Structure formats: structure tokens, C-alpha cells
């Protein structure tokens, strides 16, 4: 009996100690979170002082009048900022922060280390002339209605005074640039000239500023135009003619060591770049098998008694080519995009897949010239500080295409794949995800948005919508979806192969045209994009794989309790954080 009482007493003491420890742990976490939240506020405010252009892009307009000169002093300023805040981070024990703040800690740390790596190791500021372009930062001041136009024009006028020094520093920085990036810099900077001409003049006509002030702005704008033209002329006439890849020009290929390092900073995946590449190669073969089944099923419908090709890739290509002939007219391509968006909204609401905020504006527009030449379609989100501003869906123009180029483009973005790209770029893809991201309670997760999560979500929604019945489960829609999905898969293969395995343009085009069934114009555009970017093309398949696998894991774990709408809204509620961290948070919440 005495022994039993002693055991009970010891158990009671243990329980009390445990409760006390839990209470102390909770108190420590709360106190550390409060301290860390104050740190984040200071960090973000200082961040915008160092990167005022970035601040403008996310809707923080306190420093709109500042144009940073991209010289050695500004790079040292960035390095000093990164070092100071990495040192400050070490004052916090990550294990004593809440799960949400642990992610913020990791995102801040990754951003600061990435800054140091980019300046010291990657050195894009030396070999990429397209980094230097003032166009977008000035255009935002004219096009976004976050403040009276008079106020925005005053910021515009103040920044004008630094444009000449900006391009002088750019010319000083450039050393053995890559050929593709030099050509992009020429095209995009030339495309920005209109901002300081017709766009500015249109804005000046709308305000009641004194005429003398307007004349001063015009005079300084002309100086800016001159500085941009001089930069373009210098690249075009002095730099570009003497560039020979591997000799006087840096190769656009960054090779394995830099690629692996950039992958870890940019993607923040649990996988290595090589592991993702191997997964993509395997997925490509799986897709070919599924597509062959569908092509066999569709053959009698479209080709009656014609003999079928015996090689699967040829069979698939024949069916896809036939389906691709149904497409929009070149003059109504943008209108076709606009018409499909309400249909997507209705489907999502009818199926109860995800809450869509009807008050958030989405504006379809032709891609501005200063952004042209990189992708067919893209989203410009207003950022967490300017949540009510327009989100722009940029659609590439066909106005300068020859009839042959336009037809190739339209076949690529045909009746079926145009619906997929609208899902990806707009609803419920990028546009929807970015609206949710802006509602995240953590500014850090919104500001340091993870590209693999953002792109992965868009790719995931393509499959999810078809799984839920979009397109009426027609074999045509599924075949064209698989064709589209091959893009994401082959993006990874292409990115890794070009930069790490020295893939030639001929082999890259063969992969895209023969194995991914892309039109020649699309394939050539993707080759160009792959020469201008590094790692980013891996983000689609990497993020998709992590999100889809996580969803399937949860479905098995929760069984009948799994709710797709709840999964989507909970997943998006964490902002644009890396998938591996979102998974950690959601799994932790399920335990409680």
C-alpha cells in the first residue's frame, strides 16, 4: 500500500511538473513570438529602404521617389544589410518560435543568404544587361491609382533626376555579358521609351500642375529618354558586335555548381535539382503511356478507317495536331481569354472547390512592351500593401507575327489548351493564389513568395479542375491536358539539361517538338526563355509534385473526413511559403 501511494505521489509530481513545463514553454513561445514580430517589423521597414523599387512593386509607396543607383556602393549596402540581419537572427532560437514564425525565420534567412550569394558568387549584375531597366518602376507610378496622380507625378519627377546616373552605373558594371541577355536588354529598354513620352504626356494632361513644373518634368524625361537610348545604342553598336560566347561573352549556361546552389535558394525544396530532374524524366514516360491510350481511343472518331501510325509518339502527334486546328482567330485571341474567365468562376462556385472573392479586380491586357519577349502570358499582382489594386493578366500580342507564326502560336494555344492556361494563370491558379497570399497575416510569406509554391499551385489546379469534371471528362480535354502538363515536366528536363548537361538548341527543340508535341514557334520561344533564366523553369514541376503528393497523403490519412475545399483554403492561407513548410504546419495542426 505504501509503495502504491508513493507511485501515485510521484505520478502527481510528474504531471504537475509537465503542466508547469508546458505552461512555461507556451509562455516562452508567446514572448519569443512577440519579440520576433517586432524584429520582423524593423526588418521589413529597413528592407524597403534598401530596395525601394521592390517596395513599390508590392504596394509600399513610402520610397517611390527613390531610384537606387546600381553601383558598388549600393551592392555594399545590400551586403551590410544582409550581414546585420543575419547576425540579428541568431539572437532567436528557432525551436522556441511558433510554427508560423519558424517559417518566417527560415524565409528571412534564405533571402539574406541568397542576397550574399547573388552578389558574391552568381554576379548577375556583371553579365546580365537586362537587369538594368527603369521602365516598370516608372510605369507603375503612372498606371496604379494608389494615390492622386499629382502625387505620383511628383515621385516620378524626383526619380527622373537619377536615370542618367543609373545607366552610367549599369555600363560600368557590365563585363563579358551573355549574348541572349544583351539582346533582351536592347529590346526591353527600347520598349520602355514610350513611358517617358506618350504615357507621361497623357498623365500630364490630366493634372493641374503649374505649366513650369510640367515643362521641367518633360525636360528631365527627355534626358531620361536620351540616357536609355544611349544605353541601347551602346549595347547594340559597341557591345553586341564583339560578343563571342566562351570568349568575349559569358555563356548563358550557369553549369552544375551554380545551378544546384541557385535551385536550393530559389526553390527551397526537399529534393535536390538532380532528384527533381530524374522524377521529371520518369513522369515524361508515364505521360506518353497515358496519352497513347487516349490517342488510340480517339482515332476512330477523327480518322475513321485510316491506318494508325505504329509508333506511339507519331500516333499522339497526329491526334493532337488535328485537335489543335480548332482555335481562336488572331484578332480575337485576347477576347477569347476574357470570355473564358467567367466560365471558370462558375465551375468553381458550382463545385464548391474554393472561395473566390468577387471584389478583387482582374484586368486582362496586352503585355506592355517593356515586359515583352519573355512569356506568352503572365500575372502582375499588386502585392500585400496594395490589395485593392488591379491584378493584370498580361496576354502576348500577335500584331507583329507573320501569318505562319500566328497560326503556329494559335495552334499551341488552341480551344483546349487556352482553357488550361487560363486555369493556370488566372482562376484558380496564379491570380487566385496571389489574392489569398495577400490576405496572409504574415507579410514575410507574402513578400518572399516561393516560386515553386506559386507555380506549383498553378500546375496543380490544372489537374485538379479536370479531376473534378471540368471539360466533361472528354478524352480530347484529357489528352490536351496531358500535352500541356508535359510542358511543366519538360521545363524541368530542359532547364537542367541546358544549364548542367550542355544540351544543344537542336536537342532542346527535338525534346519539345517531338516528345512534348509543342508547335515550333512555342518551342523556339521556350528555348529563348531557358537561355534567359535559370532554375525558374524547374519550379512548375517541383511545386506541383510536392502539392499533389501532399494532398494525396492527406486524403489517405483523413479518409471520409477529407474535404477538398477545406484543403485548398487552408493550404493557401499560409501565403506563398515553400510547400515543405506549409506541409509541416498543416500536419502539426492535425495532431492538435
Walkthrough of the structure:
The protein is 68% helix and 2% strand. It is built from 26 helices and 3 strands. It has helices at residues 2-50, 52-57, 72-89, 99-122, 124-127, 135-143, 149-160, 163-173, 179-191, 198-204, 211-239, 255-267, 273-303, 312-324, 333-351, 403-412, 417-425, 430-439, 443-447, 451-467, 475-500, 505-515, 520-532, 539-558, 564-572, 579-591, and strands spanning 362-366, 377-380, 391-395. Strands 1-3-2 form a 3-stranded mixed beta sheet, with helices on one face. The longest helix is centred in the first third of the chain and has 49 residues, at 2-50. The protein starts with a helix and ends with a helix. The model is unreliable at 12-16 (pLDDT under 50).
Shape: globular
Q: Tell me the fraction of residues in β-strands, as a range.
A: under 5%
| Class computed from helices, strands and strand pairing | mainly alpha
Mean pLDDT: 91
The total of beta strands comes to: 3
Widest sheet, order of strands: 1-3-2
Helical amount: 55-70%
Give the biggest beta sheet: 3 strands, mixed
Order of helices and strands: HHHHHHHHHHHHHHHEEEHHHHHHHHHHH
What is the count of DSSP helices, taking H or I runs of 4+ residues? 26
Uncertain regions: pLDDT < 50 for 5+ in a row? 12-16
Distance between the termini: 38 Å
Q: Report the C-alpha radius of gyration, rounded.
A: 26 Å
Amino acid at each position: 500500500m505504501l509503495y502504491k501511494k508513493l507511485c501515485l505521489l510521484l505520478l502527481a509530481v510528474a504531471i504537475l511538473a509537465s503542466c508547469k513545463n508546458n505552461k512555461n514553454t507556451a509562455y516562452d513561445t508567446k514572448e519569443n513570438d512577440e519579440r520576433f514580430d517586432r524584429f520582423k517589423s524593423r526588418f521589413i521597414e529597413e528592407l524597403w529602404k534598401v530596395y525601394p523599387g521592390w517596395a513599390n512593386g508590392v504596394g509600399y509607396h513610402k520610397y517611390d521617389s527613390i531610384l537606387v543607383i546600381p553601383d558598388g556602393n549600393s551592392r555594399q549596402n545590400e551586403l551590410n544589410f544582409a550581414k546585420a540581419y543575419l547576425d540579428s537572427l541568431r539572437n532567436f532560437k528557432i525551436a522556441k518560435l511558433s510554427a508560423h514564425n519558424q517559417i518566417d525565420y527560415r524565409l528571412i534567412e534564405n533571402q539574406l543568404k541568397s542576397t550574399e550569394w547573388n552578389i558574391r558568387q552568381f554576379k548577375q549584375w556583371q553579365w546580365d544587361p537586362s537587369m538594368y531597366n527603369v521602365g516598370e518602376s516608372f510605369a507603375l507610378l503612372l498606371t496604379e491609382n494608389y494615390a492622386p496622380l499629382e502625387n505620383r507625378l511628383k515621385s516620378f519627377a524626383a526619380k527622373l533626376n537619377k536615370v542618367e546616373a543609373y545607366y552610367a552605373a549599369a555600363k560600368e558594371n557590365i563585363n563579358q555579358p551573355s549574348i541572349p541577355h544583351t539582346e533582351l536588354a536592347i529590346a526591353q529598354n527600347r520598349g520602355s521609351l514610350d513611358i517617358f513620352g506618350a504615357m507621361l504626356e497623357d498623365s500630364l494632361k490630366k493634372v493641374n500642375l503649374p505649366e513650369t513644373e510640367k515643362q521641367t518634368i518633360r525636360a528631365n524625361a527627355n534626358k531620361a529618354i536620351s540616357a536609355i537610348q544611349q544605353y541601347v545604342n551602346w549595347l547594340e553598336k559597341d557591345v553586341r558586335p564583339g560578343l563571342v560566347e566562351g570568349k568575349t561573352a559569358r555563356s548563358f549556361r550557369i553549369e552544375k555548381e551554380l545551378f544546384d546552389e541557385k535551385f536550393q535558394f530559389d526553390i527551397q525544396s526537399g529534393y535536390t535539382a538532380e532528384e527533381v530532374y530524374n522524377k521529371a524524366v520518369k513522369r515524361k514516360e508515364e505521360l506518353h503511356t497515358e496519352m497513347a491510350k487516349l490517342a488510340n481511343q480517339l482515332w476512330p472518331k477523327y480518322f475513321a478507317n485510316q491506318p494508325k501510325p505504329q509508333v506511339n509518339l507519331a500516333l499522339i502527334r497526329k491526334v493532337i495536331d488535328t485537335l489543335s486546328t480548332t482555335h481562336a482567330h488572331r484578332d480575337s485571341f485576347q477576347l477569347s481569354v476574357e470570355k473564358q474567365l467567367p466560365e471558370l468562376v462558375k465551375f468553381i462556385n458550382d463545385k464548391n472547390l474554393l472561395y473566390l472573392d468577387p471584389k478583387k479586380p482582374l484586368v486582362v491586357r496586352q503585355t506592355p512592351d517593356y515586359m515583352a519577349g519573355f512569356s506568352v502570358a503572365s500575372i502582375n499582382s499588386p502585392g500585400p500593401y496594395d490589395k485593392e489594386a488591379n491584378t493584370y493578366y498580361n496576354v502576348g500580342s500577335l500584331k507583329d507575327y507573320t501569318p505562319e507564326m500566328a497560326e503556329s502560336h494559335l495552334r499551341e494555344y488552341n480551344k483546349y489548351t487556352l482553357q488550361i492556361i487560363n486555369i493556370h494563370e488566372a482562376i484558380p491558379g496564379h491570380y487566385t493564389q496571389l489574392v489569398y497570399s495577400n490576405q496572409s497575416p504574415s507579410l514575410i510569406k507574402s513578400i518572399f513568395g516561393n516560386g515553386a509554391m506559386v507555380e506549383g499551385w498553378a500546375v496543380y489546379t490544372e489537374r485538379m479542375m479536370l479531376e473534378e469534371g471540368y471539360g466533361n471528362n472528354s478524352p480530347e480535354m484529357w489528352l490536351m491536358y496531358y500535352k500541356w502538363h508535359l510542358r511543366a515536366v519538360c521545363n524541368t528536363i530542359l532547364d537542367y539539361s541546358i544549364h548542367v548537361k550542355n544540351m544543344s538548341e537542336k536537342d532542346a527543340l527535338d525534346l519539345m517538338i517531338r516528345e512534348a508535341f509543342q508547335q515550333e514557334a512555342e518551342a523556339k520561344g521556350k528555348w529563348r526563355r531557358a537561355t534567359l533564366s535559370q532554375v525558374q523553369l524547374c519550379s512548375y514541376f517541383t511545386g506541383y509534385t510536392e502539392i499533389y503528393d501532399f494532398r494525396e497523403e492527406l486524403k489517405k490519412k483523413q479518409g471520409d473526413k477529407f474535404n477538398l475545399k477545406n484543403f485548398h483554403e487552408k493550404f493557401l492561407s499560409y501565403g506563398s511559403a515553400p510547400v515543405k513548410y506549409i506541409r509541416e504546419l498543416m500536419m502539426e495542426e492535425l495532431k492538435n
